[in-house]
Amino acid sequence: MLILASASPRRRELLSQIGVAYMVSPSHYEERAPKKKDPAKFVLAQAVGKARDVAAQYPGQWVLGADTVVALGEDILGKPKHEKDAIRMLHELSGHKHSVFTGIALVRDKKTYTKVVETKVWFRKLKDAEIERYIATQEPFDKAGSYGIQGKAACFVDKINGSYSNVVGLPLSQVYTLLQKAKVIE
């Protein structure tokens, strides 16, 4: 059985959506704070760190780790620390194109399969009152970039280019392909 190294309810829902049997064992990997650097390398390192942390507890079992960030140019936007941080991020994203990167790592003992997926997202210009109403919902506070495309922020998005499920937190097509490659599923 696959082990998901994440407590994310969105990742659990996505795996369940495609019929993958799994159990949850959240990672205790100490995540680094995102900085100005290569977002693809950053999410991949985080995903591998999370998966290896949990795989050490489950020898012989496949473990899936993932990490998602929003990048505006070279600036990596993680989860907001507080309300002002969420407001700042949403103002930065307003009227601009950004990228959502998810690193995925499938680990069993010394075997590792990885992939990084990028989806481009265009936000329409947001009004201050819209941002304030959205912040008041508390929805942004556990999400990279301070928004959830699958929730109330769906109306902020003009268009996307790439995987929708990647923006939610787990690129399902690529995860499924890795699971097939590792023979976790047929």
Automatic annotation (TrEMBL):
Source domain of life: Bacteria
Q: Which cofactor does it need?
A: a divalent metal cation
Catalytic residue list: 67
- What's the EC number here? 3.6.1.9
Q: Which UniProt keywords apply?
A: Cytoplasm, Hydrolase, Nucleotide metabolism
Q: Where is this site: Important for substrate specificity?
A: 10, 68, 150
Q: Which reaction does it catalyse?
A: UTP + H2O = UMP + diphosphate + H(+); dTTP + H2O = dTMP + diphosphate + H(+)
Q: Which HAMAP family match?
A: Maf
Function recorded in the entry: Nucleoside triphosphate pyrophosphatase that hydrolyzes dTTP and UTP. May have a dual role in cell division arrest and in preventing the incorporation of modified nucleotides into cellular nucleic acids.
UniProt lists the family membership as follows: Belongs to the Maf family. YhdE subfamily.
Name recorded for this polypeptide: dTTP/UTP pyrophosphatase
State the species of origin.
Answer: Megasphaera hominis
Primary gene name:
maf
